[in-house]
Structures are given as C-alpha cells and as structure tokens.
Write a structure and sequence with these properties.
Blueprint lengths: L10 H4 L3 H10 L4 H18 L7 E5 L5 H8 L4 E6 L2 H10 L4 E4 L12 E6 L8 H14 E10 L3 H10 L12 H11 L1 E8 L7 E8 L9 H4 L2 H8 L4
The structure holds S-adenosylmethionine (SAM).
Length: 241
C-alpha cells in the first residue's frame, strides 16, 4: 500500500521506532507521484516563507527526519531549531543536519518560553490531529512565536469528497481532513489570524500552507484628550473662541 493511501490513527506513537523512521526517510517520497508532490509542496512552502525575515530564529515543530528543517537552513534563516515527539525521527534528522539543535517535545506542550522564536513552522502534523489537539498545538505555536506561524492543513472540498467516494479512500487520504469553516474555528480558538494561503496542487490534493500571525492584544490607548498636555487640554475644554 502506498504510504499516503493509509491513515495514521495514533500519530504520537506511529513514528516512534527506528524502523518506521528509516522507512519514512526512504519511502515517503520514493515513488514518482510522491516525488512530484514533494517538489511542488516545498516550492509552495518557500513561497509562504518569502514574507519572513531571514535574520530570525525559527522552529520546525514535528520536524520528523528534518526535511523542512533542511529547507529552512537552505532558505538562510539565521537560527533554525527542530523539535518532534519522536527521537527516532530526529536521529535521522541529526544525521543530515549535525549542526542543528533538536528537542524531543510534544507540539501541545513545547518546552520553550513565550515569544522565544520569530517564527514557528508545523508541516505534516495537523491533518493527523482531532480538533481539540489541533487547537492545543496551535495555541502552543502561537505562545512561543513572537509573530509568525506557518502550518499545513489537509483541507478538503467537493473534488476530494468525490475522489473519496470513487476510490473508497478517506478524503484527502488523511485522518482529520477539515473544511474551511473548521480552519477558521481553529484559528479563532488559538488567537491566530490568517495572512495568506498557498495551495499545493489544488484541487488534486487538499494540502494547503497557511501563513498566520498572532492576534495583537489590544492595548487600551489613553484618550486623545487625556494625552494632551495640561495647558492644551484646558484650552480645548474652554471650547471655541
Ligand atoms: C508526517 S511526519 C512529518 C515530518 C516533517 N514535518 C515532514 O514534513 O517531512 C509527522 C511527524 O509528526 C510527529 N508527531 C506526531 N505527533 C506529534 C506531537 N503530538 N507532537 C510533536 N510531533 C508529533 C511524528 O513523530 C512525525 O515525525
């Protein structure tokens, strides 16, 4: 069975063994279709990254074997860090990228301080998570990022639903495909705002890269009247002459 024809039921456990990590590394993008998909997906991710300053510190969560971590290094980000729940996957990543620091961490409980990265990425995870876990992860990404969050969703439309009916495979070939309204709900619950959306091979796949930003907290501004120097305020209070 082709890798992406199956649905992962327990994503925290699925990639934990050395055998599974080596299998992912060798076979995930092994066949011609997957290689073509990877090419387009990575080109799309690079487009989504154009708006981000290269001088910053960026985290690749759910980094797996380091595919996107390597892309971030290649894009020239000043400091790139990786994290994943699976040490087996990160052992492969470390083999390719010995200069990079990797941390074992669940995306819903990240061991980093608030605002400790300029941007945070999460590719290839959200489509494996139910709504509550997705929101828990998105909140963590928002918490540790100063501003930017870039994530991937499996967002299905009429084409994927029809495809699913014909092939008998789950829509988008993922465990938790979403519709647009669910994305909006997730973002609202996580304090994130969509800035731009980049589709990967639409409508053949439901894969979409979202460039997000943290909602800025509204700071109560002193009223214009109160901010005036005292003598000018007195002048204003006396009304027109
Ligand atoms: C499909 S792989 C994607 C890897 C990489 N981002 C890529 O695109 O090649 C999914 C990764 O998510 C990790 N993962 C699953 N559940 C996780 C969680 N709760 N927190 C952090 N990582 C998780 C897995 O260990 C695996 O490495």
């Amino acid at each position: 069975m082709r890798y992406n024809a199956q649905v992962v039921d327990a994503p925290r456990e699925y990639w934990q063994t050395e055998a599974q990590a080596e299998h992912y590394e060798r076979n995930r993008f092994g066949d011609p279709w997957s290689r073509a998909y990877r090419f387009v997906e990575e080109r799309t991710i690079r487009r989504a990254l154009r708006a981000l300053a290269r001088s910053g510190r960026i985290l690749d969560t759910a980094c797996g074997t380091g595919r996107i971590t390597a892309l971030l290094v290649d894009e020239g980000f000043a400091e790139v860090v990786g994290s994943d729940v699976s040490t087996a996957m990160m052992a492969v990543a470390k083999r390719h990228l010995p200069q990079i620091e990797f941390f074992q961490a669940d995306a819903t409980r990240l061991p980093f301080d608030e605002n400790s990265f300029d941007a945070v990425m999460c590719i290839g995870l959200l489509m494996h998570l139910d709504a509550a876990t997705r929101v828990a992860a998105l909140r963590e990404l928002a918490r540790i990022s100063r501003r930017h969050v870039v994530v991937q969703y499996g967002c299905v439309g009429a084409f994927q639903r029809l495809q699913s009916r014909v092939t008998g495979r789950p829509a988008g070939s993922v465990r938790y495909p979403v519709v647009d309204a669910e994305i909006h709900q997730d973002l609202e619950r996580s304090g994130l705002q969509e800035r731009a959306r980049f589709w990967v091979l639409r409508p053949v796949t439901g894969s979409v890269i979202l460039s997000l930003a943290k909602e800025r907290r509204r700071v109560a501004r002193p009223s214009a009247r109160r901010s005036l120097p005292r003598d000018l305020a007195a002048l204003a209070a006396s009304g027109p002459r």
